[in-house]
C-alpha cells in the first residue's frame, strides 16, 4: 500500500451528512439536544426540573469519546489499551485511589475487549462518539447525580429512560409529526443550527463529478430531515451533486455482511415502500439498504470489478470502523477536535462561519463561557492524549487515548472539516496513517498540539 492517499485514485467518493458535509453551530445544537432529551425526562418520567438548568461552565463536562458504564453510573475515558485514564461517578471526578479501588491496580475496564473489537451496542455500556448524542453524556452524569441525591440506587434502569428520550426526539416519524423538541426547533429556524457549505465545497463536489467520480451520500437521517439539511447547506439543486443518495441507512448495520443485511427500499413522498428491492440496479435516492448490494451497483457504474471507494464520516462506530472493516473502503475521519488543539480553520470555514452566525446570537449570555463541545475540557483533558500515573509510583507517562488510537487504526487520514481540503487539487497526495510512521502522520493540515508534544518528547 502506498504511503500516500489521493482522491484522484478513487472511483467513488462517499459522504456522511451530519457533522461531515453539514457542520452545525455546535453550541446552539448541543443546547437544543440537551433540552430535548431533558424535557422528555422531566415531563414524561418525573425527573427533577433542576436538570433543565445549566450554567455555561457545566458544558465543560461534555466531551466526545466517553463511555458510560450503565451498571454503576461511572463515565470513563480510556487509553488505547483499555486503561481507565480518568473517570467520574455522575459528574464528580473519581480520585486515583478510587479508580484503582474500582478497576484494580492496572485500572482495566472490564468491557474493553468487547467495545474495542466490535463497537457494537451493549446493555452494559454506551459509547459517546458523535455530536448528535453527546449532550446525553452530560445528561447521564447529571441524572446519576440526581439519583444519588435522592438516595436511589444507581443501576441500568435509568438508561431505559434515556433511550426513550432519544427515541422520542429522533425516531423516523418525529420530523413529519413535529414530535419531540429537536425537529420542530430545527424546522422553525434551520439557520440557527445549520452552517451552509462554503462555495469552495460546492465547487469541489462539482469538480469531482466532472472528473467522472461517482458521488454518494449515505446518512442515517430520514429522507425528510436530509432534504431540509441539504436545501439549507447546499441549495435547492443539491440532488444534482450526487449519483446515489441513501437515507435511513441505519449505520453501522448498513455495512454488515449477510445475513444481517437489509434490502434497499424506494421512497414515495418520504414513505418507504413496504417491498424491499432484490438488488440495486440504477442510481437514485433509496432508503435503508446494505453494502453488498451497493457494491454490485458501483461495479456496474464504474466498470471496475473492484471499485476504489473513499468515505468521509465523523463517527468511529457508524462510519470509520464498519466502512474500513466490512467495506474495505478508504476512510477520511472528520475530527473537529483538531480545531480545539491549534489546527487552524480553513479560510472558507472562517468566512462562512462569520457570515452565517446568527447576529442576534452574538454575545448572547448563555454563550459566554460555554465550552464548544469540540474544545479540550478542563475535566477530561485532550481528546487525543492524556497523562497516566503508574500504580503506586509518581511516574507519569503520556498515553494515546483509545479514540485517537482508533482513528489511526480505522481511518486513512483525518481532517477537521471538508473545507480544509476543498481548495486542493484532486491529485493532492496526503500522507496516510501507518503503524510504521510517527503518530502525527495522517492529520491534515497538521496534527493536534497534544500529539505534536508527545512526538517531540519521544524523539528528544
Automatic annotation (TrEMBL):
List all Basic and acidic residues biased stretches: 358-369, 386-396
- Residues of the region (Disordered) are 341-396
Q: Does the keyword Nucleus apply?
A: no
The record's section on Pfam families has:
5_nucleotid
Establish whether keyword Ligase is in the entry. no
Q: Which residues form a coiled coil?
A: none
Superkingdom to which the source organism belongs: Eukaryota
Keywords of this protein's UniProt record, alphabetized? Answer: Acetylation, Hydrolase, Magnesium, Metal-binding
> What GO molecular functions are on record for this protein?
5'-nucleotidase activity; metal ion binding
Similarity field: Belongs to the 5'(3')-deoxyribonucleotidase family.
- Recorded protein name is 5'-nucleotidase domain-containing protein 1
Q: Which organism is this protein's natural source?
A: Hucho hucho
